[in-house]
Design brief:
- One of its GO terms (cellular component) is plasma membrane.
- Belongs to the binding-protein-dependent transport system permease family.
- The protein is mostly helical.
- It folds into two domains: 57 residues, no CATH class; 240 residues, MetI-like fold (Orthogonal Bundle), CATH 1.10.3720.
- The chain has 17 helices and no strands.
């Protein structure tokens, strides 16, 4: 039990802690002012819309509003789980997210490791610039370029195929080609931009480690394997956990621009289904229920990835 002296000591410490906190805020006031726009963004566009999740448990009507719309409990969730779309959407989303994670995740790491070994500055900067450029283009432009490249009439890919004596292929109309096209375009778009994180981590490695390894006779491959990669392993683990958490959060934009009714069987995912049900069919409550389920599954996968990472490697997001 706490004695009177202990309680008195805690009470005496409160003003001093508040004073210390105020002192730190006053000292860092410029940084805190710079942080205000970021905080406002997350409050308005990330936490504010959470209020709208209530419509997943209601028969939402635009004219009645969120509060006045009748409660229906888990009606929309049951409809979704018992419908024919659930198994197809879950399989497509999981497969596309898993393949994208497996094939897309290593490329930025490999690019960063290779760029770190380049000694010609002009060549290194040229490769960096060319690899970063796709990340600054909108999804619409990227998908338009993919469609033009793969056009069966005048696309450069089919021109090369025809030059070898084969028939042109309508890639975007064949189910077997949708996932490879999506994954390759994602690698091309994000590889250079994501490599910046790993290049920054490499820049933070103590250079004396390389000097000591060079004295011991290690070549560049040994230094990359035993110094560079272990030095960025913590960053790799954190990025992998975050990628795993977002594995099911596939944006609807690229899929929507690349798929067609002929590829629905392998291309239709949660986000495109929510788009069709919510915006095109105005079934807001049903779309909100599907979106909430997708977010909960992504949260579970993030927690599982963090748990496994901490058990195996001792590192995690928290």
């Amino acid at each position: 039990m706490e004695t009177a002296a202990t309680k008195a000591g805690k009470a005496a410490n409160k003003p001093s802690r508040l004073a210390a906190a105020w002192k730190h805020m006053k000292r860092d006031r410029q940084l805190l002012i710079l942080f205000i726009p970021c905080l406002a963004f997350y409050l308005i566009f990330r936490y504010g819309p959470l209020y709208g999740l209530l419509i997943a448990f209601k028969d939402y009507s635009v004219f009645q509003g969120i509060w006045d719309s009748p409660w229906v409990g888990f009606k929309h969730f049951e409809k979704f789980f018992n419908g024919n779309d659930f198994a197809l959407l879950f399989r497509n989303t999981l497969m596309l997210g898993f393949l994208n994670l497996i094939f897309s995740f290593p490329f930025p790491i490999l690019l960063a490791l290779m760029l770190n070994e380049v000694r010609l500055k002009w060549f290194k900067k040229s490769v960096q610039t060319l690899s970063y450029l796709p990340a600054f283009l909108s999804v619409v432009i990227i998908c338009s370029m993919v469609i033009d490249f793969l056009s069966p009439t005048d696309g450069i890919v089919n021109k090369i195929i025809e030059a070898f004596g084969f028939e042109p292929v309508y890639f975007l109309a064949e189910k077997a080609w949708f996932r490879p096209i999506y994954i390759i375009s994602d690698i091309w778009t994000n590889m250079g931009y994501e490599s910046i994180i790993y290049l920054a981590a490499i820049a933070g490695i103590d250079p004396t480690l390389y000097e000591a390894a060079r004295v011991d006779g290690a070549n560049r491959y040994h230094m990359m394997r035993h110094i560079t990669f272990p030095g960025i392993l913590g960053t790799v683990i954190v990025m992998f956990i975050m990628k795993t958490g977002n594995m099911l959060r596939i944006g609807y934009e690229k899929v929507l621009l690349l798929y067609s009714p002929m590829t629905y069987e392998v291309a239709d995912v949660f986000s495109t289904f929510v788009y069709r049900k919510g915006l095109l069919e105005s079934n807001y409550s049903y779309a909100a229920a599907v979106g909430l389920f997708e977010a909960l599954v992504a949260l579970v996968m993030l927690l599982m990835a963090n748990f496994v990472s901490k058990r195996l490697g001792g590192q995690g997001l928290w």
